[in-house]
Specification:
Chain A is mostly helical and 340 residues long. Chain A has helices at 2-10, 15-31, 38-64, 71-88, 95-117, 122-142, 144-147, 168-190, 193-203, 205-210, 215-241, 251-264, 271-289, 294-308, 313-325, and strands at residues 160-161, 164-165. In chain A, α5 (95-117) packs antiparallel against α11 (215-241), α8 (168-190) packs antiparallel against α11 and α12 (251-264) packs across α13 (271-289). The relative contact order of chain A is 0.16. Chain B has 255 residues and is α/β, with parallel strands linked by helices.
């Protein structure tokens, strides 16, 4: 039994310990619609929907040390599926159809793209991601008759669940549910045998192969996991704004998830959550008061985070500050995947 | 060369690999039975590592065939061969530096159990895997350092971890490329003893590349001398090392 107690302690898998904090935050998020304006609620919804694609970036970075710029492909896929089926060629706006359908589309596309993109690492992986994203973007941009070109597609009907039209508040809870659900799922995946072997692949590809790990297949699947997260967000983002445009396919959009991941801090499991709120919050504040300074502010923020705290991000800073306030409190633990 | 240990496990037939003018393997043939341990010696550049890498699939031979238990494995990718029981430890240690010793061995245990795609289960709940990992760590005297990050350990430890991972793969034949290179004299014997104990206890076949001729005499009854991609001598170490052509190759090249 010695083996078990030892291994149980070696990963920070004290899910139960953190469960209270997680439930508390989720409840807080669940109460928010009762206290804030519609505008602020939409903003929080946007934050929630940004979390899954950022988790995709985090997943690929923390386990494979690759920078994933191509998340916008899957946001775009999910969004345009909604735009076609619940907007342009109205067939259904049933979430129980659109979510699984988009998930399936993203899994298939991610798998096929993964065959090419995941063959490369480092610089080439990042560039391949951008290149493929640009192809998608320009296809959508050019096929005006079908996609509406730069005008995009508006008039997306409101979502239904089991045939019942969702109120805006109801839709908020769907977003919260899916976002929280995906966070829990990612926590699971990050502590799974799958992730441990991915980490081995990152450590030494040749050795991983020589101990029987199907390295290419597993890397492709990691790409699928990241893409699936983004695809589900894409569906909900399209419903949130009732509009889809080609910018959801733009690689610059994908790069924003990378920036958000950096701001949040890639050393922490909560990094993507912090990053989503920090990025979207900052975007809101700057565009409200200094609408022309957005690019400068975000650029400077990312640069500052990278230069001062690096992989620790805002989460690291917060942990440090809170640690000083509540001496000895171990508020956030590093994820096992950062290997430190 | 009678194979009295049992049925043929690994059969290599006219394996050839040229790198331009360099003949890394020139029509090599070899048969190894279950439980048979061979040492492979030769000067640097004789083709030993290339030969082992062809066996595990990291290097594609120009021609020739490799069979494991009668099945042709020549075209199979490395991970499939590893699963079939042909496993190599590397000359320069290949370990997962930013993982603990426990996780290094555990990864091999997960892999051999085919648990590649288990995504929704916490790895700490894989009880059988964790117990097996602990057991292997104890066999190789690594239990004390099991929670240490591998990058914080010395070269000798990394060698042992590499070997332990190979054993975790439940191999039928183990290919060991210089298990003691770059390791101090005392540790050399300790590593070799740990490894040989396990090879014998599990009746594994093994090909061990080793430079220390004294060790070679200790660990196996049979040795092969390789030179310019060919096996130039094979037999009991004492006998082989007294042959003129072997002395010329091993000593003349500053072995």
């Amino acid at each position: 039994m010695g083996a078990n107690t030892r291994t149980d302690r070696m990963l920070p898998s004290q899910f139960d310990d953190k469960l209270i904090a997680a439930i508390g935050l989720t409840l807080l998020a669940a109460l928010i619609p009762f206290f804030v304006s519609e505008y602020v609620r939409t903003l929080i919804q946007r934050c929630l929907l940004w979390i899954p694609p950022i988790f995709g970036v985090y997943f690929i970075y923390s386990l494979l040390r690759q920078v994933h710029f191509a998340q916008s492909i899957f946001i775009g896929l999910g969004s345009y599926i909604v735009a076609f089926l619940a907007g342009k060629y109205f067939l259904t706006s049933e979430l129980l159809i659109l979510l699984p359908l988009s998930l399936l589309a993203c899994v298939v596309v991610a798998y096929v793209l993964g065959i090419f993109i995941m063959r490369r690492t480092g610089f080439y992986f990042a560039i391949m991601g951008i290149a493929v994203t640009m192809v998608f973007w320009s296809l959508v941009y050019k096929m005006r008759q079908i996609t509406g070109g730069s005008d995009g597609i508006s008039d997306i009907k409101n979502p239904t669940l089991l045939g019942i039209q969702l109120s805006e508040q109801g839709f908020y809870y769907i977003c919260l549910l899916i976002s929280v659900g995906l966070i829990v799922l990612m926590y699971r995946i990050l502590h799974s045998p799958f992730s441990m072997q991915l980490k081995a692949i990152r450590g030494d590809l040749q050795k991983a192969e020589s101990i029987g790990i199907p390295v290419h297949q597993m890397r492709r699947l990691a790409f699928v996991v990241a893409g699936a997260n983004a695809g589900l967000s894409g569906v909900l983002l399209a419903f949130l704004y009732n509009y889809v445009g080609p910018t959801s396919f733009a690689w610059e959009f994908g790069a924003q998830f990378v920036q958000a991941a950096i701001i949040g801090g890639v050393n922490y499991f909560v990094g993507p959550i912090v990053g989503a709120f920090a990025f979207v919050g900052l975007e809101f504040l700057v565009s409200t008061w200094f609408p022309n300074l957005w690019e400068i502010v975000i650029g400077v923020t990312v640069a500052l985070v990278v230069v001062t705290v690096g992989e620790e991000g805002v989460t690291g800073i917060a942990k440090n500050l809170l640690g000083r306030v509540f001496k000895g409190a171990n508020l956030k633990e590093r994820t096992y995947s950062d290997g430190k | 060369m009678g194979n009295n240990q049992g049925p043929v496990l690994l059969a290599v037939e006219s394996l050839r690999k040229f790198f331009g003018e360099v003949r890394a393997a020139n029509d090599i043939s070899l048969e190894i039975a279950q439980g048979q341990v061979l040492t492979l010696v030769g000067a640097n550049g004789a083709g030993k590592s290339t030969f082992l890498n062809m066996l595990i699939g990291l290097v594609r031979p120009d021609r020739g065939e490799i069979r494991l238990e009668g099945k042709r494995i020549t075209g199979l990718p490395p991970e499939q061969r590893a699963k079939m029981g042909i496993v190599k430890t590397f000359q320069l240690e290949h370990v997962f530096d930013d993982m603990t010793v426990f996780d290094n061995v555990r990864t091999a245990c997960l892999s051999v159990a085919g648990k590649h795609y288990v995504m929704f289960k916490d790895v700490s709940t894989e009880r059988e895997i964790n117990e097996r990992t602990q057991h292997i760590l104890e066999l190789f005297d690594l239990a004390r350092v099991c929670q240490t990050l591998v990058r914080n350990l010395g070269h000798g430890y990394k060698k042992v971890i590499d070997i332990a991972m190979s054993f975790a793969m439940k191999p039928k034949i183990l290919l060991v490329d210089e298990p003691t290179s770059g390791v101090g004299e005392e540790e050399k014997y300790r590593i070799m003893e740990l490894m040989m104990n396990q090879i014998r206890a599990n009746n594994l076949a093994a090909i061990i590349v080793e430079h220390d001729l004294n060790l070679v005499k200790d660990i196996a009854k049979e040795t092969i001398v390789m030179h310019e991609g060919e096996f130039i001598a094979r037999g009991a170490p004492e006998e082989v090392f007294s042959q003129d052509k072997v002395v010329e190759v091993l000593v003349g090249r500053g072995f």
